[in-house]
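Example 3.2
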Amino acid sequence: MSRAQQLRAGAFYILAGQGAGQLLGIARNFVVARLISPFDFGVAAAIAATLSVLELASDAAWDKLIIQASDGDDPALQAVCHSLMIIRGIILSVLLFAVAPFIATFFSVSEATSTFQCLAIAPLVRGFAHLDVKRFQRDLKFRADTDVVVLGQLLGVVVAIFAAYWLGDYRAMLAAILAQSLMLTLGAHYKAERPYRLAWGKVAIMRSMTFGWPLMLNGVVIVIAGQLDRFLVGGMLGVEQLALYAVAVMLISSPMLVVTKVVGALALPVLSKAQSDQSEFVVAYRSVGTFVFLSALAMFLPLGILGADLVTLIFGAAYAGPIQLVPWLVLGLGVRFIRGWPIVASLARGDTKNVLIVNLVRILGVVAGFVAIKMGAGIVGLAASLALGELFSFVAGIVRQNMKSNMHMAAGADLLIIFLICCSMPIFLAEPLANITVAGSVGAAVLITMISVAAMLLISRDSRNVMLSLIGKAIRP
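Structure, written as tokens:
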């Protein structure tokens, strides 16, 4: 198989795995939400958020070291990384068990203390995973890792169904997480080619820690910027409000994560190839940005109009939140999506600092959200604050990237303004649209999206050029 064929096959498995994983994640939460009460689902969301926060904040990415390092194929280095993963798993497990009573008290669900303590099994089990499925990716072989992840998600769905029927409360989420963790570890061992080995070497350990600590720091920043909102809602407003917030965020963010992977996979090679030629890079940079904005407008505008109806349709009327919650969440996630444009451009030129900078700026939204909740604005105020933080983050990222690319610092401002105006409309239309049928909302979403895309094409020459290029490639034999 040629290198190009390997790349295409690898991209297929990555995207297929991401898509299947997101769909199975929605399915798991759908099952749990439908079979238990909103209160119990709020506790379940708190359980999932707790594990996510601990794992993100302590992720030293030793699996990435195996992929990235020139000697990542060395069995000795892999064995040391196995040892470090076990140590991390033990530390996380002990820590989670110890703080479980405080977490349960923070969410005002002291009766769930034992469930949070049982959650400590998950990081311990995951710590014994085999890294061979990651090592395969050095040769662009992604199938083994994708199979393990998808099978883990699938088992989580099956266990969630039985546990929700049998237990009837938040413990169904715990059962699903533990089953998924077990499958991830056992599946990694089943797919491995090498025997599982442990080793301890001072040089290799120091090297692994040197590689991992900056990523752990970035993980802490990501936790604060991207996960702390669940704790603010659950701790300050209660787990029932967390249930409403969690289902809306999950439903909206799932398609965004898949499309982000697709756009990143397409854009990074294009920009990387052009990085040595400034004029060629500028053309590619503007084309990618225009494509991102057009994609965002076509995806997030109808989602802002129809998102609330989708939440009710999938999860039931019990999970219908305030009518302006979904439009604000969609606006914030839409801005997060377009922020991928300057981030990918930075990565194409080897600039990883921009990722840390934009995540640091995002924290402003979390701080503003805390203030909004304290002032009584609830989850809608939090969503609006987070959207503002995402906007500041995008501006910081795009200005820095424009200046490093020797472009005008305001390049892309016209597209941003059009996007913000159009994707803000669902916020102001939320109340009128709440009084019409779902069919009427679908018609309004289609009409408004078509008009908005046409307006962007009319105002932006880059948009017209990109659209004509896409049409030309589509009809070319």
